[in-house]
Design brief:
CATH topology of the largest domain in chain A: Quinone Oxidoreductase, Chain A, domain 1
Helix content of chain A: 25-40%
CATH class of the largest domain in chain A: Alpha Beta
Distance between the termini of chain A: 10 Å
Radius of gyration of chain A: 20 Å
Number of helices of chain A: 10
Structural class of chain A: alpha/beta
Low-confidence stretches of chain A: none
Largest interface: A-B, 36 and 36 residues
CATH superfamily of the largest domain in chain A: Medium-chain alcohol dehydrogenases, catalytic domain
Largest sheet of chain A: 7 strands, mixed
Order of helices and strands of chain A: EEEHEEEEEEHHEHEHEHEHEHEHEHE
Number of strands of chain A: 17
Mean pLDDT of chain A: 97
Oligomer: homodimer
């Protein structure tokens, strides 16, 4: 089968090559991929930013497809089913946090940027009928992360005011759509005017350019503070978030693309009873609830662009440049 | 009546003087104080560290006593009752956070370091029978802060592992006692060998000297990480706490005596799904639950020393030096 693998000898660090399909083991199924999607994680693997990166691995955490083959003992009814794949492997029993055995599909295990992928049958969910394969394939990792951040960690209630920072990235767009669907009042920030305009079109009450010095002041004036902020930047901007979150409010962050903050205004955090909450991916329960939520509210992921596997380098470079608005999808 | 007031002309910044008792207003009661207790807040008022400090105010947030007089319309049954006073005024309706009108008894309003204090009748709770006036007077502010930190913010469950940092201070000792009573496995840290020994005697599973470089390593080895940490220091030590809290665990802090941390290891916070939660004092609901808890478990506050009002300077200096283990009580 054709697959996009990590290869440190090519200039793109990627290689479209023929890879043999290994036999299924107990509990496994073979899914013919119809659409895969990129996450920052894939780009960071390409850049070698994770420990123990194994060259030759098939990248890709997100995928949708059709079940082609099942291991002995698995219900044959799965064959031919249209599915999406939960890329969170071995989360474990604790809803609070992943176990030590937790893995993400697409490094170290072979992922979805291939004509076929092998996963445990318990990673399969039926594809919501209102979604195309491209839309369904765009959902898993970012949708799961956004859902857990908003609802399990953020405990979002309808009518609460939510700020989504860095609008345009995959998790941020899902967080925006989910929060809207849940009846929250949604605000967004981005350094890109184009992305701010899209957020407005999608129903943001207000949008902010976080590169402007007065954005905190303006946001406080307009919103009177946010009940919940969903962020992936951290860095020194975290203290701006502490200043625009409502007393008693929450800042949930799932990344630290701007690194560690160089201070934390501790007195404000304790006196205003603010919660700073780290989150990552989600449990099986979160995934199941996310899929139900998507169906109930007929949410469609925003697709930035659909590439073929042959265009993988272009797709990765677009992710790296942060130009995308919505998910970058690849099809075999 | 005699009262300890804030006075910037004396060397001690305190003055024991005669102050007239004003008439009661609607909803108020007059309590004859039997015992008052000090908090760091009183010392910080003495040092002028709060904005809008009014000279001449009677300090003191903690007190127990006997109701002597009630305003018209209030149940006369209160007269003669032995009570403790909830020093949290105007918390408001939101369990998550105090309102903008929130005040603490003993600045700007006259407090408990006096023969008599005037408070709203809704601040009164019957003194638990198993407590002396000295013990009951030691309870309110620190007990309330500890109770909210552990149970509302920290959501402590029995058998969870809790680390109480800076053992010896008022809130820390209550947090220690409450957590033990709730069936948690309690650990403590202190820079003082004497205080660490007391924590051991009171049933700490292990104690740590946080001035030693290897304490984080040792604590991790012995505890395999804490589910909950109760802290009032913040500062750079916050990152040590991030290293010893269990993945999915909580760090609840109610002060920042060491100031702002100079960094925050953000990646660890989000990947380990850690919650950093600020807290302060507590709501009326927290206070009521705290008093019930104290009664149910027959908890007795640890008293460091009982001084008279005449010895106020000595009492404040002991608090300032951090020598106390338990609460510093003053009686008229």
């Amino acid at each position: 089968m054709k697959a996009v693998t990590l290869n440190f000898t090519t200039s793109s660090k990627l290689k479209l090559e023929d890879v043999p399909v290994r036999p299924l083991e107990n509990g496994e199924v073979l899914v013919a991929i119809k659409a895969a999607a990129l996450n920052h994680r894939d780009e960071w693997c390409r850049q070698g930013l994770y420990p123990n990166i194994n060259e030759g691995v098939i990248l890709g955490s997100d995928g949708s497809g059709i079940v082609e083959e099942v291991a002995e003992g698995i219900d044959l009814g799965w064959i031919g089913k249209e599915v999406i794949i939960n890329p969170a492997i071995n989360w474990g029993e604790d809803q609070k946090v992943q176990s030590k055995d937790f893995q993400i599909l697409g490094m170290p295990r072979n992922g979805t940027l291939a004509e076929k992928v092998i996963v445990s049958v318990d990673r399969l969910h039926l594809k919501p009928k209102h979604l195309s394969f491209e839309e369904a394939g765009a959902l898993p990792l970012a949708g799961l992360t956004a859902f857990r951040a908003l609802f399990y960690q953020g405990q979002l209630k309808s009518n609460e005011k939510v700020l989504i920072t860095g609008f345009g990235g995959g998790v941020a767009q899902f967080a925006f759509q989910f929060a809207k669907a849940a009846g929250a009042k949604v605000y967004a920030s981005s350094s890109s005017e184009e992305k701010r305009n899209v957020a407005k079109e999608l129903g943001a009450i207000s949008v902010y350019d976080y590169t402007k010095e007065d954005w905190v002041e303006n946001a406080l004036k307009e919103s009177e503070g946010f009940d919940l902020i969903i962020d992936s930047a951290a860095g020194d901007a975290l203290n701006n978030l502490i200043n625009v979150v409502k007393p008693g409010g929450k800042i949930v962050f799932y990344g630290a693309t701007r690194g560690n903050p160089s201070t934390l205004i501790a007195r404000k955090v304790f006196w205003n009873q603010i919660k700073i909450i780290g989150t990552t991916m989600g449990s099986d329960q979160d995934f199941e609830e996310m899929v139900s939520f998507i169906k109930d509210h007929e949410i469609k992921p925003i697709i930035d662009h659909v590439f073929t596997f042959e265009q993988a380098e272009e797709a990765f470079d677009r992710m790296k440049a942060g130009k995308q608005l919505g998910k970058i999808v690849l099809t075999p």
